[in-house]
Amino acid sequence: MAAMFSQNPLMNGPNYSYNDAPRVNAPEGAREHRFDPYTDNGGSTLAIAGADFSIMAGDTRLTSGYSINSRHHPKLFKIGGTTADQKDATIVLSVVGFAADGEALKERLDAICKMYRYRHGKPMSVKACAQRLSTILYQKRFFPYYAYAILGGLDEEGKGAVYSYDPVGSYEREQCRAGGAAASLIMPFLDNQVNFKNQYIPNSGEGHALQERERRPLTRNEVEILVKDAFDGAVERHIEVGDGLQMMVITANGIEEVLLPLKRD
Amino acid sequence: MTSIGTGYDLANSIFSPDGRNFQVEYAVKAVENGGTSIGIRCKDGVVLAVEKIVTSKLLKQSANKRIATVDRHLGVAFSGMIPDGRHFIDRARDEARAWRDTFKTPISTADLASRMGGYMQAYTLYQSVRPFGITAIVGGFDSTEAAPVDGEVGSGPSCGAGGKVLGKTHGGPFLYMIEPSGLYWGYYGAATGKGRQSAKAELEKLDLGGPAGPALTLEEAVKEAARIIYVAHDDSKDKEFELEMTWISGADGPTKGLHQEVPKALREEAERLAKKSLEDDEEEEPKEEKMEE
Amino acid sequence: MDHRPQAWGRPRDDVYGAYDASYLHNNGPKTATQSPIVTGTSVIAIKFKDGVVMAADNLASYGSLARFTDVKRLRPFLSTSVVGFGGDVSDMQFLDRHLKELATDEAYEHEASSTTTDEGGSGAGEGQLNAANLYKYLSKLMYRRRNDFDPLWNQILVAGLDAHAKPFLASVDLRGTTFTSPSLATGFGAMLAQPIMRRYAATEEDAARLTREEAVNVIKECMKVLFYRDARSLDRYSIAVVTKDGVELSEDEQLEKQSWAFAERIRGYGTQVV
Q1: Residue A3 sits at the chain C interface (C-beta within 8 Å)
Q2: Please, which pLDDT band fits residue C118 given cuts at 50, 70 and 90?
Q3: CB distance from C144 to chain A under 8 Å?
Q4: Min Cα–Cα distance to chain A from C146, Å
Q5: Where in the sequence numbering do the catalytic residues of C fall?
Q6: Chain C, window 16-45: residues with a beta carbon less than 8 angstroms from a chain A beta carbon
Q7: Model pTM?
C-alpha cells in the first residue's frame, strides 16, 4: 500500500502499485512466502433458534478492502437436498470470512450430506450434520478454512437448533449467534434481546436480590423484526455490511427464504 | 497363399524366405473386409466419407460415428477392425496433444501421418503384438496463416525479422493413407475397404492432381464422395449401410478450419444425387442391351 | 581418479576446503510463483439485455515499464464465452493453453456422445460448455492452485450466457474468491470504472434494460477514464461483445475523443510549482 502513494518507489526490481507488492522485511536468510492465501471478504451472519423454528440471516455484500465486489453474494446455503436446487433441504449453513473457503466448505458439507442420504435413505439430522461439520473443519486444522460457520435446522424434537463454529471446528449448540464482521456489534444486542441479559424486573429487589426477567421463547415475528433491526444497526456502524439481507426461516414445513433491502452506502 | 503350413505366418516379426511378413498381409485382408472409406483432397479442403455397414437393426441410426476428429483440424476415417481403429484414434489424439505441449502449435497433417505411420510400423516388429487390422485415411487442413502459437498474446512484427514474410503462403489441405505395414503416402484421393477397387476407379476420373492443383471444390467433392460410396457399395453382400461424411475447409471456408460433419441438408442432397446417378446408370445399361439385340 | 562420481569436477578439498554438498540436493521449500512479473491492468465488463460487453487494454507492464504494447488479454472460448485476464501474463498464457486443451477434449466428448446429425457439427450446440460451466471450472482450478500454494496470479472475468441463455458475468481471483455482479472490474478498474458502470447497471434489472449500444458506450467511456488515471494503461484496447450469436472480438481499438484539458488544472507535479 505504501508504494501506491509513495513518491519513492522500491528500487529493487519491478514496482507494483497495489498492496501485494513484495515486502522486504524478511530476516536474513529466511525465505519469505509472499503469497497470502487468505483474505477477509467482510459481511455478517446471524442465527436465532425459536421453539419450533430457526432463523438464519446474512447480509449479501462481498468486499475486499474498501471495495464492494458484489452487492448480491449470498452467505446462506441450503444443505443436503436431493437436487441441485435444494428444494427438499432441511438444514441451512451460513459462512462468513474468506468467501472462497466458505464456498469450498459449503460444497464439501453438501456433498457429504447428499452421500449420507444416498447411503442411509434418510436425510441427515442437524445433530449429525453439526458433528460432521466440526470434523470437516478440524481436518484442515493446520491450513484452516477461514470461515465462521453457523448451522441451523430443527432437532429430533422439532425445536429450533443453531450450532456455531470457529474456523477449526470447535462448536456448540446455542440459542443465538452472530458471526463475521459485525458480530461484536450484534452479539451484545442479541444477549439482551434474545436471552434477556441485563433485564430485571423493576422494583423486585436491591443488588443481588434483583430478579432477572424470565426467559421465554420468542415468536417468529419477533425474531424476524429483531434480525432486521440487528442488521440495520450493523449497517450503520460497519462498512463491510450492507446491500441486502438474506433470511431463511426453517420450520417443519420447509425453508422459507426472504430477501430484504439494506442500505447500499 | 503359399504361406499356409510353412510356419512363417504364425508370428509377427518373422520374414518368410521370400521376404514377406505374412501377419501384415493377413491384416490387409481384415481391411479388405471392412466397409469402404474414401478421402478426397480438393481445392479448398478435404472430404472424408465412410460406408458404414449396418450390422443390426437394433443399432440406433447415425449413432456410433466412424470418422473421428483429432485436435480440431484433422479427421481420421478407417476401414477394418473397429476396435483397432478406435485405438488408432486415441493414439492420434495423444500425439496431437503431445505436439501442442511441446511446440505450442497444432500438429500438421504430414507430421501426424508420420507419427501414426511410425506407430503402426512398430506393430509389425514384435512377437508380442499383431499389426493393426485397419487402413486409416487422415485428412486435415493446415492453417494457411503463419502457424498460430497457443497462448500467444500479440500479433508480433507485421513483417521483417521475427515477423511475417509478405506473400508467403503456408499449409492447405492434405490427405494421407496409412496401411497396416506402417506404409503411408500422401494422396489426391484415397480409398480403402471392400469397395476400394471401384472407388479408386471413380476417384481417378476426378480432376484432383495436375500441376495447377485440384479443380474440384469442397461442395463438388462432397457430392462426388457420396456418389463414390454409393457406387462402391455392393448390394448383394450388405443390404443396409449409412453414409457418414465429414469435411475440413480453411479458415475462410464453411468449417472455419475445423474438422466437422457435413451438414445434414448438404449430405442428404448429395445422397439424393448419388442415388439418382445410380438409377440413371441402371437405365442406360438395359438400353445398350436392347440395341445389341 | 576418485571413485565417487559425485566428487568429479568439484574443487579439491585439500585446496579449497570441504565442499558444501548442500548445493547438490534441493530439499528447500517447493518454489512456486511468489509474485507476478509481467502484468496486465484492469479488465472491465458490463451485462446488457442480451449479452455482456468486456474490455481490457493491450498493455503488459514490467513493473512501471510499459513492456509489451500488443498483448491481447481477452480470450474467446468455444465461441460461446470470453475470458478476460488481469494480473500475470505468463499465468494467463498457461491458462489460455489449458483452456485450448479443454476445448479440444470437450469437442472429442461432444462428438462421442452426439447421436444425431441434426446439428451437422456446427459451432455451439447442446452439451457444450457454457460460460457458467467454464467459470465453475476456472474457479475450481484457481482455488486448487491457491490450496497448493502455487497460485495463478490473475484476476479473471468470465462472460457469456448461462444454462438458461441469460447473460452471465463473474469473477475469480488468485485465491479462488468468486463473485458475480451486473458489472465487474479488476485492478484499478474496481476503483475507477466500477462506480461509473454501476450508475448504468446498479442492479440486474437495470442491466437487463441496457441496450448493446449503451453498454458498449459505457465500457468505452470507462476505458477512457482508466487511460486518464491509471498509469499502467494504454489507449489501445480489446473489446468483446458476447451474445447468443457468439463472440465478436475486436482486438485493436483506439481510444477516441480524449480530452486532456483537465491536466492544465493539476498542480504540484514536475515543473509546475504554483
Answers
A1: no
A2: very low
A3: no
A4: 6
A5: 33
A6: 28-29, 32-37
A7: 0.86
Cβ–Cβ gap B65/C112 under 8 Å? yes
**Separation between Cα atoms, residue B75 and residue B89, nearest integer Å:** 9
- Residue C53: beta bridge partners? C46, C241
- The whole-angstrom separation of Cα A144 and Cα A164 is 16
Query: Under an 8 A CB cutoff, do B153 and C93 touch?
Result: yes
Q: pLDDT of C86-98, one tens digit each?
A: 999 999 999 999 9
Q: Taking the CA of residue A152 as centre, how many other CA atoms within 13 Å lie in the half-sphere pointing to its CB?
A: 34
> Could you tell me if B175 and B138 are in contact, meaning their C-beta atoms sit under 8 angstroms apart?
yes
- CA–CA distance, A32 with A24 (Å, rounded to integer): 9
The length of chain B is 293
- Interface A:C, Cβ pairs < 8 A: 82
The C-alpha cell that represents C234 in the structure block: 494504454
Which burial class, exposed, middle or buried, applies to B237 when counting CB atoms under 10 A from its CB (0-12, 13-18, 19+)? exposed
pLDDT band of B284, cuts 50, 70, 90: confident
Strand locations in chain B (E): 37-42, 45-53, 68-70, 74-80, 134-142, 172-178, 184-186, 189-192, 241-249, 259-261
Helix (H) or strand (E) holding B224: helix B218-232
Q: Does C175 touch chain A (CB under 8 A)?
A: yes
The answer to whether B67 touches B61, Cβ cutoff 8 Å, is no
As a whole number of Å, the end-to-end CA separation of chain C is 78
- In order of B92, B96, B109, C117, C125, the CA distances from B115 in angstroms are 8, 10, 10, 31, 32
Residue-wise pLDDT for B191-201, tens only, equals: 999 999 999 99
Residue C94 forms contact with A (CB below 8 Å) = no
Please, do chains B and C touch (3+ CB pairs < 8 Å)? Answer: yes
Query: Which residue is closest to B152 within chain C, CA to CA?
Result: C93
Map chain C to HEC letters: CCCCHHHCCCCCHHHHCCCCHHHCCCCCCCCCCCCCCEEECCEEEEEECCEEEEEEECCEEECCEEEECCCCCEEEECCCEEEEEEEEHHHHHHHHHHHHHHHHHHHHHHHHHCCCCCCCCCCCCCCCCCHHHHHHHHHHHHHHHHHCCCCCCEEEEEEEECCCCCEEEEEECCCCCEEECCEEECCHHHHHCHHHHHHHCCCHHHHCCCCHHHHHHHHHHHHHHHHHHCCCCCCEEEEEEEECCEEEEEEEEECCCCCCHHHHHCCCCCCCCC
Residue tagged 492465501 (cell numbers)? A37
Identify the CA nearest to A18 among candidates A40, A33, A34, A31: A34
For the question of an ipTM over 0.90, the answer is no
Residue of A nearest to C173 (CA): A100
Neighbouring chains to B with at least 3 Cβ pairs closer than 8 Å? C
Residues 6+ apart with CB under 8 A from C113: C127
Kindly state the cell numbers that stand for A225.
423484526
What is the pLDDT at residue C246?
Answer: 95
Q: Is B153 within 8 Å of C68 when comparing Cβ atoms? A: yes
Three-class DSSP category at B88: helix
